[in-house]
Recover the amino acids of this structure.
């Protein structure tokens, strides 16, 4: 008997936010081909997300369209602290000090909120800030402060995200918030967990153990 291969169609995932969290818009999205409704747990509390889940399931019941629900975790984010002036502009070649001690950032010195980072970075490693709009190279790291050279210049401001490509991070993958969010999702019987910023197989295992 000839084997038959069934090819699944690509699924459409839509992020549900302030513009779409109403029955009318969700119904239009479902009829237009939305397969999965993504809830971003970087924002909102459990009460708000519970209302969204109830609304999505109501739309699914009324339309007869099967809608999956995905919980997208915040994940282990690395962020800057605040700046005294809100924003600072840099030029290529400038030397700045990055510290793990909480402080109000200035042009010469600012804070990264993840202390584990100072055990993981070494001379030559790169720090990308604000989706790579600014790039630093680590020159010195004494475990509490890093001297860095600006390689790609640009403005940076309070709470902007950072990433460190190619560096194995020791910071925990699951925060207490992520654990609480995943447990909430299990109680709500969501269909998918979208795990942000996974680094290794043990990260997936950590989620499965919850």
């Amino acid at each position: 008997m000839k084997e038959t291969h069934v090819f699944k169609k690509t699924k459409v995932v839509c992020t549900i936010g302030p513009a779409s969290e109403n029955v009318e818009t969700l119904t239009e999205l479902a009829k237009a081909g939305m397969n999965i409704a993504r809830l971003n747990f970087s924002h909102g509390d459990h009460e708000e997300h519970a209302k969204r889940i109830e609304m999505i399931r109501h739309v699914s019941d009324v339309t007869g369209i099967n809608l999956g629900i995905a919980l997208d975790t915040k994940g282990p984010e690395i962020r800057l602290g605040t700046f005294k002036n809100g924003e600072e502009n840099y030029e290529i070649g400038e030397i700045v000090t990055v510290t793990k001690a909480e402080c109000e950032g200035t042009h010469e010195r600012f804070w990264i909120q993840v202390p584990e980072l100072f055990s993981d970075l070494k001379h030559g490693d790169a720090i990308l800030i604000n989706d790579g709009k600014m790039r630093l190279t680590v020159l010195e790291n004494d475990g509490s402060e890093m001297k860095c050279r600006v390689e790609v210049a640009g403005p940076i401001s309070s709470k902007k995200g950072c990433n460190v490509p190619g560096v194995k991070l020791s910071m925990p993958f699951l925060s207490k918030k992520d654990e609480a969010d995943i447990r909430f999702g299990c109680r709500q019987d969501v269909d998918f967990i979208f795990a942000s910023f996974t680094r290794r197989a043990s990260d997936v295992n950590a989620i499965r153990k919850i």
In short: The mean pLDDT is 93. Residues 46-63 form the longest helix (18 residues). The chain has five helices and 13 strands.
